[in-house]
Amino acid sequence: MKTFLQVFFISMFCISHQSFADHSPQTLQVRTIAIAPYGIDDSGELSGIYYDLTHSLLVKSGLAAEHHIFPYGRIIHELKLGKTDLTIMFKYKELANYVDYIHPLPALRNVVIGRYGHDYQSITQLEGLNIAYLNGAKFSDEVDNNPKIHKQMVVDFHQGLLMLKKERVDAIIGPMKPIISAAKLLDLNEDFFGKPLIVSERTPWLQLSKQSNGHVSAEKLKAIFSKMITQGALDNIQKKYQ
Q: Ranges for the Solute-binding protein family 3/N-terminal domain (predicted)?
């Protein structure tokens, strides 16, 4: 009888513990792209335009979250596996079946820019050249699908600009703001660069993993984020990083 009661109470404890675990708050896995000034990891001190904006969204939404700054490629991989719930980045065809697009941000112009004296007027002029290209990113379909344009994959814009400075590549591709941000850290001023060639205009989106719909409301996030953008939250944050 004593043994039976012991087994009974242990079983009840396990059931109660499991019930509590099932109703514990779900920690949202949030990722920001590791591209200054959007996501900055300074020896563990995290900041950046998209990092701050997303953090503010989480606070206003009352959501518990684990927020990291990771490279493009890793975030894309984690979205496919359901390991990332929320991020801000461009739309990618390969992610169409894995994410819901919650709200757009202002469009960014992607450029190809080389050293001073090397001005490119068309994508055709890039054929035969080596372009520093951020690993995991997709900045221009025309450039991506042209096999005559050689892409040298880099881990970040800092590495790409170092290669440009050392003449190991002819140009670099990406949004102008992070290119200039990385250039400042290398003491490269505007005189170092030629004229930028605009190769695309793409819109970043707040994106939610389709596997996250069970524990977070996409409509709630959209309503809060839309209000933040309308009230100038993004503009105010951008001023901090000018």
A: 36-241
Distance CA 30, CA 42 (A): 18
Please give the model's pTM, rounded to 2 decimal places: 0.81
The confidence score (pLDDT) of residue 213 equals 67
CB 135 within 8 A of CB 194: no
Closest CA to 112 of 159, 155, 169: 169
Tokens linked to 147: 């096999």
CA nearest to 33, candidates 181, 227, 185: 181
Please state the three-class secondary structure of the chain as a single string: CHHHHHHHHHHHHHHHHHHHHHCCCCCEEEEEECCCCCCEEECCEEECHHHHHHHHHHHHHCCCEEEEEECHHHHHHHHHHCCCCEEEEECCHHHCCCEEEEEECCCEEEEEEEECCCCCCCHHHHCCCEEEEECCCCCCHHHHCCCCCEEEEECCHHHHHHHHHCCCCCEEEEEHHHHHHHHHHCCCCHHHECCCEEEEEECEEEEEEHHHCCCCCHHHHHHHHHHHHHCCHHHHHHHHCC
Domain architecture of the chain: domains with CATH: 23-106+203-240 (3.40.190.10), 108-202 (3.40.190.10)
Which residue shows structure tokens 């050249």?
129
Cβ–Cβ under 8 Å, residues 35 and 160: no
Residue 33: its H or E element: strand 28-33
